[in-house]
TrEMBL record:
<dbReference type="GO" id="GO:0000160">
    <property type="term" value="P:phosphorelay signal transduction system"/>
</dbReference>
<feature type="modified residue" description="4-aspartylphosphate">
    <location>
        <position position="56"/>
    </location>
</feature>
<dbReference type="InterPro" id="IPR011006">
    <property type="entry name" value="CheY-like_superfamily"/>
</dbReference>
<dbReference type="InterPro" id="IPR001789">
    <property type="entry name" value="Sig_transdc_resp-reg_receiver"/>
</dbReference>
<dbReference type="Pfam" id="PF00072">
    <property type="entry name" value="Response_reg"/>
</dbReference>
<dbReference type="InterPro" id="IPR050595">
    <property type="entry name" value="Bact_response_regulator"/>
</dbReference>
<feature type="domain" description="Response regulatory">
    <location>
        <begin position="7"/>
        <end position="124"/>
    </location>
</feature>
<keyword id="KW-0597">Phosphoprotein</keyword>
<keyword id="KW-0902">Two-component regulatory system</keyword>
<protein>
    <recommendedName>
        <fullName>Response regulatory domain-containing protein</fullName>
    </recommendedName>
</protein>
């Protein structure tokens, strides 16, 4: 029986970074969806039900904290989907908020490599 292909939703307002992430994760064998802000990300998440959401915090229209809060309140799938936070900076108050909403991990953009990110995603999707 074939293993189900894992999917990742990248919610990131930086177009260049979003493209790099989509290209890398696609080349690593994931089905990848992209969104430019939390509002679009929430729509894509509810439609596609990805295996994991890679979520930026600071975005226009709807920020990542708001999107995560709405996602967790949306339905049974949204309450349990794995969410990794990938952001430029994060303060203790924001960490507390997203941790309370069930974010699985945090990565600061200046402190990661693509390979490290792929490894963390694979670890979470075992």
């Amino acid at each position: 029986m074939a293993t189900e292909k894992k999917s990742v939703l990248i919610v990131e307002d930086d177009a260049a970074l979003r493209k790099v992430l989509i290209d890398k994760l696609t080349s690593e064998g994931f089905d990848v969806f992209g969104a430019v802000n939390g509002e679009e990300g929430l729509k894509v998440a509810e439609e596609k039900h990805p295996s994991l959401v890679l979520l930026d915090i600071f975005m226009p229209i709807m920020d990542g904290v708001t999107m995560l809060s709405k996602l967790r309140g949306s339905n049974a799938w949204g309450k349990h989907v794995i969410v990794l936070i990938l952001t430029n900076s994060i303060d203790a108050q924001t960490i507390a908020k997203v941790s309370g909403l069930g974010a699985a991990d945090f990565m600061i953009k200046s402190e990661w490599s693509l390979d490290a990110l792929v490894s963390r995603i694979r670890e979470r999707l075992v």
